[in-house]
Amino acid sequence: MNEKALRVLEYHKIKEEIKKYTQTSAAKEIIDKLKPYENIFEMKEHLEETEEAFKLLTKKGSAPFEGAYDARDGISRAGKGSTLMPVQLLKIANIQKCARRFKEYVAHNEEEESFPVIEDICEGIVPLRTLENAIFNAIIGEEEISDRASTALFNIRKSLRDKIASVKNKVNSLVRAYSNFLQENIYTIRGDRYVIPVKAEYKAQVPGLVHDQSSSGATLFIEPMGLVNLNNEIKEIMLKEKAEINRILEELSQKIYENIVLVENNAKIVYELDFIFAKAKYASEINAIRPGVNDNGIIDIVQGRHPLINPEQVVALDVYLGREFTSLVVTGPNTGGKTVTLKAVGLLELMAMSGILIPARENSTVSFFKEVFADIGDEQSIEQSLSTFSSHMTNIVHIMGKADSSSLVLFDELGAGTDPTEGAALAVSILENLRSRKTKLVATTHYSELKAYALKTEGVENASVEFDVETLRPTYRLLIGIPGKSNAFEISKRLGLPDYIIDEARKGISNDTLKFEDLIQTLQERSIKAEENARKSEMLKLEAEKFKEKYEEKLYSLNSAREKVISEGRREAKNIIAEAKEEADEILKNIRELERMGYSSETRAKLEKERMRLKESLDNVEENPYGDLQKHKGLASVKEGEEVYIPSLNMKGIVLSQPDSKGEVQIQAGIMKINVKLENLTKGKENNESNKELKKIRKREAKLNLRQVDSSIDLRGMDGEEAMYSVDKYLDEAYVAGLKSVTVIHGKGTGVLRNVITDMLKRHHHIKSYRLGNYGEGGAGVTVVELK
């Protein structure tokens, strides 16, 4: 992406806004390096990850970034085998704790919504709980090691405390003994050794070592000989403490070194997540959405807002191009919002192409462009002796040399800064040349010649920024399909210019011209209303499809719940039958006991009869625990498309296939496909629409398959074996989905990956033919495959 467009569209300001929501400087550096992605696949994936982060923040609250620090310096040193300082160890432990907690944060059960992209990123996290605990147990603060870091350190510090207590007692006794020779009856410390302040004239009266003197020289700080050995012992213990602390730090650093790959990888993932969630927090702040994405040059932004303008003041705009027209010519008065509109379109495109959600309404659509060019603002240069016109033309020459069908070009005041006649002619020529290249273009202008050009040229449309004549102020609304009017007469009249002057001016313009302008305006107003209605209908259609998908999912959930209830009911029925059988057996046993006690033959015959009836009843219930649910006569044959009834599920379905070797047929029941034995089906209601329903099911399946399989696969970054496996699987899916032509993206590089794929394609049974990509398709970096 060219730097000039990023600069004039103020892309860097968006990045600065996102930085405010980061936790680590590493994430800020990722944002600094952020640029629009180079292909549509990355664009879609990064938009999806931002949307998933946005949903996670909404559903689960703040992400677990507490204690996340930039630990790259410490990790780098540990990777070289260096011993780390306590503060570096704490930062590493905190970043590992953050990584572990993030893995728990994104975890979900089957009923909850999944977040595949974020989950895939977190899949690389390997929790290092043992390492975390070792560091947190050993280090209390940035410069403080815990007594519990090791048994040896605990014993050393206990010994040091005891020794210091002994020294204090000794020094206090010496202070009392030498009190007549001291400046003050206190002791102090110089260089970790206990000393007393002796008057200079009495230094001979206090035998010991002089460590320091006061600034005036009147006081000497002397270590009495009675303290030398005790101070030496304290010094020795302190040296042992320091050595033990160094040993603990070396041991912890060594543990990090042993896990350096995992530690570094976990940290990188946390920094990446920090970057992603910063985008999500920014999206929440500006009330942004994830737009639809295409690579056909279609832009349809609904109620889009410039993200750098105060939300309370910004006016939303509807702008679209790429379907009926590829060029948009915007006219209107100065300060009417033309340049803001131009910048908003360019900036929203750059944001979406960088994986940043855009401030617009749902169902907005943006396109992937390989390049966005912008010629906006006055960049005249005194140093280079360039006028405004020369500066613009230098930039336009650069654009004309590179713009193609996959480019978006934004021109502000095209052709301005020179003679109006020549400027207008030049502007028309530039627009026509870019239109012939199918470049997507938005240009602002004051030239009426460009309005006429847009009216008579196919693929070019007029637009204007609205101006309220009553208030003499712009409304900043963009009206596509309506060319801007100068409104000179109306504005002059409102400002107090006499009517006779205005009437005289009107005479200078032919009636035909005035009528033609009014007619064009009327037609354009009707046209724009029709287009707005069409766009609203399209939006409503998309919303209806979303509702349909939502309720189909609910239906599936209800059917699953029904099956679960039926299954549980069957188990419960079996348990009840088993209990009843046990009870019946107990009754029969008691009957036999009664028979032994003696009854008449007639009574025994009746008991035997009841016993047999009870046994038959139990056997029947055991064989058919579902009662009337199974009382039907199975079908002998079925036809594809025939409606049948499944008593065990209490559902209707459409037959999709003839019985297989097991006597099972495939049934479409709601949104489910199930296999049911022929004998477990009954005749459904007669329905002449059943065959049509079957066709709809087949058609829906075909569309589903086509929608689920992309027309290309990207192998860049894979090794040979992984690439072969991925292509083989992809070709099978594409063949089943009915795709006729697919693209394998392997990159140019050394050509090794291309050769591996070519050898595989020679032997693949789904391949009709294959070739390297042509110009515009990716060249030698892709292989185009025709399927049988």
UniProtKB/TrEMBL annotation:
Q: Which Gene3D superfamilies match?
A: 3.30.1370.110, P-loop containing nucleotide triphosphate hydrolases
Concerning InterPro entries, the annotation shows: DNA_mismatch_repair_MutS_C, DNA_mismatch_repair_MutS_core, DNA_mismatch_repair_MutS_sf, MSSS, MutS, MutS2, P-loop_NTPase, Smr_dom
Give one Pfam family: MutS_V
**Residues in the signal sequence:** none
Keywords tagged on the record:
ATP-binding, Coiled coil, DNA-binding, Endonuclease, Hydrolase, Nuclease, Nucleotide-binding, RNA-binding, rRNA-binding
How would you summarize the oligomeric state and partners of this protein?
Homodimer. Binds to stalled ribosomes, contacting rRNA.
For this chain, the family text in UniProt reads: Belongs to the DNA mismatch repair MutS family. MutS2 subfamily.
So what does this one do? Endonuclease that is involved in the suppression of homologous recombination and thus may have a key role in the control of bacterial genetic diversity.
Give the protein's recorded name.
Endonuclease MutS2
